[in-house]
Write a structure and sequence with these properties.
The chain is built from 13 helices and three strands. By secondary structure, it is mainly alpha-helical. It has two domains: about 90 residues, Orthogonal Bundle (DNA polymerase, domain 1); about 180 residues, hpI Integrase, Chain A (Orthogonal Bundle). The chain has a three-stranded antiparallel β-sheet with strand order 1-2-3. Helix 1 runs antiparallel to helix 2 and helix 6 packs across helix 10.
Length: about 300
């Protein structure tokens, strides 16, 4: 049903709306993201059965992927056009996007896991399976280096300098940065590469990708989201956990331990230190202790 709807939408954009190929491709990409999310998180609902609450959950999901405000607005525009088409064709009685608003992008304090909660999460991984060994290496790397999910799934073997404890990360805008990687992550990467990755025949174009799925292709961001969600449920964690939670936890733990904010900014790949400063608001006791230690007239 999804494929038929998407193909019809494609023809509608080209013929009825006379849109450029770039715009058509962008809108189709947006709808494909919704389809993949529905498949993974909404019991494989079809487009004509999604309700307002389902679409709100999808917008919250793309917000958590740290997409820019402009990208999120474009995705919302794509979804509105898609449902306008479905309504025009009589495939939906009511347009569920009519009352849909983009997620509020004001800065809020992120969800963070404690060290104990991270241990609980990792303890749920089944190390007797190839996927379990991959997931442990993958999540250890994500937390150790504070990676975005897009940076994780595209991490290249040729960008690993494990002998000196660094990885080269390609971030937003194709900007590269060198990030230290900890011993636990290095250990589990070695285990994964020796016992799983070395036995796989990567699909064309994925030869240098470190973390592969069962079909020897690159992992999707949705798959990483689902892996974490499943582990969180098994661990009994009540917090809303997504891939960015590990990145938030990485930064928070560093700041709370007294790391220099500029160093954290560099490792996170933040363009502005203002973005990094949010992590100083997570632990008020840490702020007070810092003032007591360094301010000459605080006591």
């Amino acid at each position: 049903m999804w494929d038929a709807n998407i193909n019809g939408f494609k023809a509608y954009l080209r013929i009825e709306r006379s849109m450029s190929e770039n715009t058509v491709d962008a809108y189709l990409h947006d709808v494909t993201m919704l389809r993949d999310y529905a498949h993974a998180s909404l019991s494989d609902k079809s487009a004509n059965t999604l309700c307002l609450q389902d679409l709100q959950a999808f917008l919250q999901y793309i917000n958590e992927l740290e997409l820019s405000a402009g990208t999120q607005a474009r995705i919302l525009s794509g979804l509105k056009s898609f449902y306008a088409y479905l309504e025009l064709e009589g495939m939906v009685a009511d347009d569920p996007t009519e009352m849909l608003e983009a997620p509020k992008l004001k800065r809020t304090l992120p969800v963070v896991l404690s060290i104990e909660e991270l241990d609980m999460l990792f303890a749920q991984i089944d190390h007797s399976t190839p996927e379990g060994l991959r997931n442990r290496a993958m999540l250890e790397t994500m937390y150790s280096c504070g990676l975005r999910v897009s940076e994780l799934v595209s991490l290249a073997i040729s960008h690993l300098y494990l002998d000196i404890g660094f990885v080269r990360v390609v971030g937003k805008g194709n900007k590269e940065r060198l990030v230290p990687i900890g011993g636990e992550a290095v250990k589990h990467i070695h285990i994964y590469r020796e016992h799983v990755r070395a036995k796989m025949e990567p699909k064309k174009g994925c030869e240098d990708i470190l973390f592969l799925n069962r079909r020897s292709s690159s992992l999707s961001r949705v798959m990483v989201f689902m892996i974490l969600k499943d582990l969180a449920i098994k661990a009994g964690l009540k917090k809303t956990i997504h891939p960015h939670t590990l990145r938030h936890s990485f930064a928070t733990h560093l700041v709370e331990a007294g790391a220099d904010l500029r160093a954290v900014q560099e490792m996170m790949g933040h363009k502005s230190i203002t973005t990094t400063e949010i992590y100083t608001h997570l632990d008020r006791s840490f702020l007070r202790n810092t003032m007591e230690k360094y301010h000459p007239r605080f006591n």
